[in-house]
């Protein structure tokens, strides 16, 4: 059954074609349609076996896992998951990329910041940013664009993802994806920020040593050949 994954292939074909247009200009209608398509992705369409949601019966060694679903010149599709409630993907960015996050199991809190130009910045490793707030999102019905969290290259691009339940997993579509060199930078907050719209500085830091993603077995799609 996994050798085909017809529904998923059709969905990813459509997403890839739409993502190619985002390389040239931002289009709100295109973004909405990509969000709708991403919202139809599920564990069933992926035909993926996630680790057991209970930490006591969790089969992997690492606290965070990832599975590559598909990648081409316009996009990447990856599944991530966390063992424990409170598990995090630390604050980071994907400069020049659009991000689409669809919860597959459990629920997430996404804390995000936007880049702000600051000509008075004194330290090279400090980034001026505006706090955009926090979103909590869980599994929702298919075909609903609003169920997919959207992060554009500027607005909300710096983000932290926290699991609100054990065994939380999500699908992450990035456009353009990892096939292009992506300068992913990690950050730490320099002060406590709770009010959306508040300006602050974030400090660029090396990747946290304890941030390790264990590969989850999955038969990655090599190409999206036409489905007859």
Automatic annotation (TrEMBL):
SUPFAM superfamilies: RmlC-like cupins. InterPro entries: PCO/ADO, RmlC-like_jellyroll, RmlC_Cupin_sf. One of its GO terms (molecular function) is metal ion binding. The keyword Oxidoreductase applies. Gene3D superfamilies: Jelly Rolls (2.60.120.10). It comes from the Eukaryota. Keywords: Iron, Metal-binding, Oxidoreductase. GO terms for cellular component: mitochondrion. This is (pine wood nematode) hypothetical protein.
């Amino acid at each position: 059954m996994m050798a085909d994954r017809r529904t998923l292939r059709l969905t990813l074909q459509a997403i890839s074609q739409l993502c190619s247009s985002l390389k040239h200009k931002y289009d709100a209608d295109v973004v909405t349609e990509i969000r709708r398509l991403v919202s139809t992705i599920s564990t069933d369409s992926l035909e993926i076996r996630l680790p057991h949601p209970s930490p006591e019966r969790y089969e992997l060694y690492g606290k965070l896992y990832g599975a590559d679903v598909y990648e081409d010149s316009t996009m990447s599709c990856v599944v991530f998951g966390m063992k424990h409630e409170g598990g995090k993907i630390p604050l980071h960015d994907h400069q020049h990329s659009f991000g689409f996050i669809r919860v597959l199991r459990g629920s997430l809190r996404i804390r995000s910041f936007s880049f702000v130009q600051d000509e008075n910045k004194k330290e090279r490793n400090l980034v001026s940013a505006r706090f955009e707030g926090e979103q909590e999102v869980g599994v929702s019905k298919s075909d609903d664009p609003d169920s997919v969290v959207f992060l554009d290259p500027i607005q909300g691009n710096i983000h932290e993802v926290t699991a609100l339940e054990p065994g939380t997993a999500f699908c992450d579509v990035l456009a353009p994806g990892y096939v292009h060199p992506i300068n992913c930078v990690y950050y730490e907050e320099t002060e406590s920020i709770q009010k959306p719209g508040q300006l602050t500085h974030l400090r660029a830091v090396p990747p946290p040593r304890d941030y390790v993603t264990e590969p989850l077995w999955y038969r990655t799609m090599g190409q999206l050949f036409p489905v007859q």
